Please model this.
Amino acid sequence: MLTAIVAIAAIAAAAPFVLPNYHLHVLTTAGLFILLTSGLNLIHGYIGRLSLGHTAFYGLGGYTAGMLSAKLGLGLLITLPMAALVTVVAGLALGHITLRFRGAQFVLVTLAFGAILHLFANNLVEVTGGPMGLPGVASPLIHQNLPGAHLFGSRASFYWLVLGLDLLALYFIWRIVGSPLGDAMIAVREDENLAQAVGINEYRYAMLAFVFGAALAGLAGAIYAHYVSFVSPEIFHFNIMIMILVMVILGSVGTMIGPVIGSVLVVLLLEVLRLQDAWREPLFGLILVFATLLFPQGLALLVRNGFQRLFHRQTGRQADGADAPDDSGPTAPRPSPVPAEARAASGRADTGDTGDLLLSVQDLTVRFGGLVAVDHVSFEVRRGQIVSLIGPNGAGKTTTLNLVTGFIPRHAGTIRFNGADLPRRLMPHEVAEQGMIRTFQTTRGLQSIAVGKAVETGLHRTLGLNWPNIFKAITVGMPEGGRTARAEALLKRVGLERDPQELTSNLSYGEQRLLEVAVALAANPTLLVLDEPVAGMNPEETARMMKLIRNLRDTGVTVLLVEHDMKLVMGLSDHIVVLDHGKRIARGCPAEIQTHSAVIEAYLGRGAAHATA
Model:
C-alpha cells in the first residue's frame, strides 16, 4: 500500500513535465478542493458534525493573504502561515461557541458564521474592496532575488505547492485517524454519551478536528488568492460549500481517500460539461443524483470493496502473548479471584458494611421544574460488592445513575468517590477519568466499526492523551502498545468469541450487550455501573450475563447495578437499595428486601403488603 501511494505521488509530481498549462490548472483546482474536502471530511466524517461554515474559513484565508499581499506587499512565505494562523484562531473561537450545540443548531450557527463574513466582505469597502473585490494580490515570494522565486508565477510551481500541501495534509490526517485520536473521534461520531462514559473528552477531539479543518481551508483560500491574484466576496458563496459537501459525500464520508476521489472527479466532470454550457448545471445535477443512488456509500468504499472481492484479501492480526497484559485492565493487575465459598463464609452476601468504602452518596437531589425526580437519596458502595438499585418504573433509578456519573447536574447532595469529593458540575468524561465507568439502559454500540476497534475505544482512558501526547500522536505517531491484544483478551473475558474484524452491527442483541461490558472493562473501571444490562434479553442471554457479572465480582470488580430482573438482582447482589417515587424506601441484603413491607407495597400494592405482614 505504501509503495502504491509513493508511486502515485511520484506520477502526480511529474505531471507538469508532460501536461499543458490548461490541464495543470484543472489539477491545481482539484488540489485546492482536496485541501477543503479533507478538512470537512475530518469534521463531518470522523466526529459526525455537519459544518456549513467551511467556506467561511476558505474566504477568511483568502482575504488574509490578499490583504497582506496587496496592502503590505508580502509574499507566499508569509501570507500562507499567517492565513493558517488566522483561521486557526477563528476556528478556536467559533468551535468554542458552536461545538456545544448539537444537530441542526450546530449546522445553523456555522452557516451563519459564513453569512456574516460574506456581509463583512461586501460592506467593509475600505478594507476588503467591497463587491468589487481586492485586486493586486501578488504571486511571488517575499524576496524576488531568492533562488527560484520567479517559478512561483508559473502554473507548475503552484501545482507543486498545492500537491505538496495535499500530501502533507493527508499525512497528518492519516496520523490522526490511524491513532487512538481517530478511535476517539469515531466514538464521538457514533455515540457521544458512550464516548464520555469511557472517559473520552468529546469537546477536545471535536475541537481538534474543527481547528485542523479550518486551517486547511484557510491555506486553500490563501493559495487561491495568490493563484488568481484576486479575491472577492464570491469566495464565501454558499454554492462552493455545497460543492465541497458533494465531493465529500460522493467520494465516501469518513475515508482517507474519499475526499481525493470526490474532488478530482467533480472538478473533471465540471470541466467536461463546460462544453455544454447551457446544459451544464442540469446534467451535473442529474449525474450526481444517479451516482448517489447507485453508490450511496461513495466511490471510495465501492472501490475498496471491489478490490477486496477481487483479490480475496483476508486481514488477520497475531498478538504476541508477551505483549498482552492481564485482561482486567491495561494498567492495573487483576485482583486475585475470591472463591464463592470464601465470600459466603465472610458473610458479604448477608451484610452491606464490609469492605472499604468506594462510593458514598448523601442526600442526592434533582428537580425538573416542579417535579422532584430524586429526593435526598443516600447509599454506599463498598469495594468488591455488587450493589443494586431497584424499584418500580419511574422510581428514579436511571436518573440517580445519571446524577452519580455526571450526565445530569445535581441540585443538592454530595458524592464521594474513591476518597475524593466529586464537584457538582463535573462532566461525564471527568467522572469516567476518576474510574467510574458505566453502560446504558439502551444498547449503544459503535455500529460502523469492527468489534475489536470498539473495545479499543474503551482503552482511551489509560493512554494519557493530554494535549502534548495528542501533538505527538499527530506528528510522530504513537506506539500500538498491545491495544489489539488487550481488546481480544477482553472479548474472551466477557465470553464474546467473535472475529475482532467483524462489524459490531452483525452481532446479536445479547452479544452487543456483552460488547458494551467489554468496552467498559477496557476503561479499567474502579466502579462498573451497569444500567439494566439484561433488558430485552431472552433467558439464555440473561443467564450468560448473570454469570459474567458474578465472575467480575469474584475477580474483584465492584459493580453498581440497576435492574428489573429480580432473579438476577437477588441472585447476585450483596446489598440492595430500593427507590420509589425518587425516595429511598429500603436498603439491606436480598433476604431483608424480599420481606420488607414497603418494598412489597411499592411493587404489588398495599393489599399485598398487608397480606404478607
The domain at 340-612 is CATH 3.40.50.300 (Rossmann fold). The first helix runs from residue 2 to 13.
